[in-house]
Every structure is written in structure tokens, then in C-alpha cells.
Amino acid sequence: MTFELIDEMERLGCPRILVVGDLVLDRYVWGDAERISQEAPVILLREDRQETRLGGAANVANMLRGLDADVTLAGVVGADSDGTLVAHELARAGVDCSALISDCDRPTTCKVRFMGRAQHRHPHQMLRVDREMRHPIRTEIAQQLLSAIRPRLHEFQAVLISDYAKGVCTAEVLRPLIDAARAAGIPIVVDPAAGGDYQLYRGATGVTPNRSETQKATGIDVRSIDAAFLAGQSLVEKFDLQMAFVTLDRDGIVLARQGGESIHVPTRIREVYDVTGAGDMVLAMFGLGMAAGIEPTKLCRLANVAGGLEVEQVGVVRISRKEILTDLLQGSRRLAGKVCSREELTRHISARRKAGQKVVLTNGCFDLLHIGHVSYLQEAAREGDCLIVAINSDFSVRRLNKGPDRPIFDEGYRAQMLSGLESVDYVVIFDEDTPHALLKQLQPDVLVKGGTYRDDEIVGREVVLSYGGRVKALGVTPGVSTTEIIRRLRGAETEAISIPLPVPPERRAA
Question: ∠ CA 11-284-271 to the nearest 5 degrees?
Fold first, then answer.
């Protein structure tokens, strides 16, 4: 499944997406929480910097830009300095703001978070102050918004509604928009307001409520996966939705579909630093995937990854396709192990290149894994971001005249031993006498070899140099070789093989 997700990420393209909803400006005040104030029993924050970020629908648009989508944002800001700042930051992010309406009767929604560090360690949110107006926008503003959207609706591959209950997502705006999108066959996905009226979203393609929002909308206590199945199906049936994506934080996502079986898509446990913006990131991933036609179950898996990466950050941070690809690659290693077929490895390397990583390859028999191998593989790994170890198959070892009783250990055993090393990312078995065909297929950035080789003696050198790669000999650990170890074992020698090791500092002092 991970390989399929990597393929889907590589086929996303650059879809055009419309985001409609409540724009928010997030302002952060950072500092050290040094002591208790003498004026009152409150923590005193010694400010050292301020930061502004996009929030709400503006953040969804920003997240989509981080995922390389072409984004238009429709919403309302106040005729104030914060509204000007939001528009400036959106334009700087590459978001089309032609459908952004300024309303002199309401302020731009602004949330100010005070972030305190105790003893200069990880910051935590101490207080949030909101400046906002929640009553619905005037009919005149709603009509301006629709006039900016409807003539262009056919330009978009998906529409996202980000409802933060700040007055933009009214029936006056959403009803004609959902009806028009549905008639045009354009997927429209809603991130509902907490405690919102789901009648507003009737007929949408899907909704993405979290656990608490789902419970408020359905009256079902969503503490278990089975309860999430029931609640998701209730949303689909009651509000004429094609699907409901019930997000369950550490438990992943439950997908309920009209006329279909509900599915639970689990996620892996992550270190959570801040949940701010995770819902926006998940909505952005759903919008991008729907615009690209990704099947809903796969889309849930990608949304799990995107949301998981977001909660590992402090504050709202854009997640890129490169980061998602990298996380998928790491996950595939955990799930499938390091030993790969050539086809699997080719797909992995393609994804790693798109993530900007440098690939290193080395090859050999590795019949008896010893300290010389371990040392040079550690050194090889430092030459790039990913180390492939290509090992000769059993037939290949015999053809190379290593001896009638070689290899001592079969290819499966050798591959598993190498995969146990932290420095090794992938192990692949090749049957040819030389690695030439494998090098032409994978085209590693660096070809390395341990042993008594010079650069110009490394087999496959000409292949790597032909496409602009680099070749490097890494030397040998003195006194240790597979041939020497086997010779000593055959001779039943009892003296231990000894090589000089670094002396620990405490022993040096003694």
C-alpha cells in the first residue's frame, strides 16, 4: 500500500482548488515564562519576539500552496491593518486573492497566542486572546462573494469550505455554491464548524469533522471505532453526503460512504507538540487528493500522514510534498523491511530523488559480516542520505570463483544480516557477475567500495561516471578480511583476531 501512496503523490500534478471560508490571522508572542508577577498570581512572560501566521481558510490555502496546488481563496477580511497583512501574506504565498472581499463593518479575525518557555525549553501556549465578530456577513457582502466565485467555478477541480463560525459560511453563500459544484461534478469538501448546523453542508461531497464535532452533530459518543462508524454513517444519510471523513486524532480516520461499508484507516503514533493547524492540513490534503482523483481510502492514508507531520511542529507550519514522501519512505521501511526487489527499489529511489535526497550504493558478497564491513558501511552512509547495499546472489558468488564451498551463508541470510545495520537503508540481490545493469537502472549519485581498491579499479566506475555520478574508494580495516577469517577457521586457529580500537576517555585518564 505504501508504494501505491508514493505513486499517487508522484501523480498529483498541480490542480486548481477554490477555498471558501473564514480567514484568520494568527499572531504569536514568544518569550520566557520567568516568574510569578508581583502584582497578581500570574506567570510573567518576558517577550523576545512576535510572529504572524495565516489561520482558518487562509491557512488551508497556504497549506495547499505548500502542496504545490494552484489556489484561489474566497472570503472576507476587515478594512483594517490586519486585513491588509492577511492579503499581503496570501499574495506572498502565491494565493489568488481576487475573490477576497473587504468589509468595513467587521474586524479581521485575529487570534493572539502567548507562547511561554520554562527554563528556555519547549514552548507551551499560556493564553489566547481572540478579536472577532461572529454574526453572519451582510447580504450585500454575501452577493459580492458569490459574484466573484460562480462565474469561475468551472476552472476548479475541487472546492474546500473552511467553516470557523465567523460569519462567512452562511446558507446564503453555501447553498448556491454546493448546488452549483454538485451539478458541475466538482468535489466539494467541508471542514465543519464546531457545533455548526450541518444542514448548511447538505449535498456536499464530504465533511471532515473531528471526534468532538462528530459527537455534537450526531449525539453519538465517538469513543470507539464502532461508534465512529455509526456516527459517520449517520452524517452521510442524514445530510445527503457522498462520504464523511471522521478524524480521530491518534486513532486515524473513519471513512463512511453512501451505500458502502465504513472503513477504519489507522495511523501511527507520533510525538505531538501542537495540534494547531492539523485540521487545516488534513482538509488541504483531502482537497488536493480529490482534485487529483485519488481513491478515498488511499486519500485517508495520505491525510493521516499530512496531519501527523503537522502535529509534530510547534504552531502552524506548511507541510510539503517532499516531507510527505520522505515520511512514506520511512514508513515503508518499517512495514516492509529493508530487503527489496529491483522494482520496489527503483520506485523508492525515484521518490527519494524527488525529496531531494542523495543516493549511495555499494556492492559485494558480504559472506561473513565483520567489523571491516560495519566500519566501511558506516562511512559509506555518510556520503549521502540513503545507502543501498547490493549483494551477489549465491550463483553469482560461485561463478566469481570464491571457492566450491562459498558462499558460506546463503543470499537470504546475508541480506537479513545487512538489513540489521542502522547505516543500511536498502538491500538488493543481483544475479549478474558485475553490478553494471543495476547501476544503469538505479543510477546512484555515489558508488563506493571498501577494500584495497583505487577509484579507477572499482567495477562499474565507467557506468556511474557516464551519467555524472561520483566514485569513491573507502579503504579497509587493517587485519580483517573475509578470506583471512575463513582461512583461520579452516585451520582451527585459536588465537583471536585483534584490531586496534579507540581507547575510551576514562581509560586514557587511568
Answer: 100
Give the tens place of pLDDT for each residue, 223-254.
Answer: 999 999 999 999 999 999 999 999 998 899 99
**Is 74 in contact with 155 (CB distance < 8 Å)?**
no
φ/ψ region of 240 (left if φ > 0, alpha if ψ in -120 to 50, else beta) reads left
Residue 332, pLDDT > 90, answer no
What angle (nearest 5°) sits at the alpha carbon of residue 188, between those of residues 15 and 285?
50
Q: Can you tell me the distance from the alpha carbon of 333 to that of 396, in angstroms, rounded to the nearest whole number?
A: 27
- What pTM was computed for the model? 0.73
Cell 477504519 sits on residue: 264
CA distance 280 to 208: 10
Residue 423 in contact with residue 383, Cβ under 8 Å? no
Distance CA 245, CA 451 (A): 55
Alpha-carbon span 64 to 281, nearest angstrom: 8
Tell me: the pLDDT tens digits for 181-224? 999 999 999 999 988 899 999 999 999 999 999 999 999 999 99
Residue 73's DSSP bridge partners are: 19
Phi/psi region, residue 453 (left: phi>0; alpha: psi -120 to 50; beta: rest), is beta
- Taking a C-beta distance cutoff of 8 angstroms, is the pair 187, 203 a contact? no
Instruction: State the catalytic residues.
Output: 280
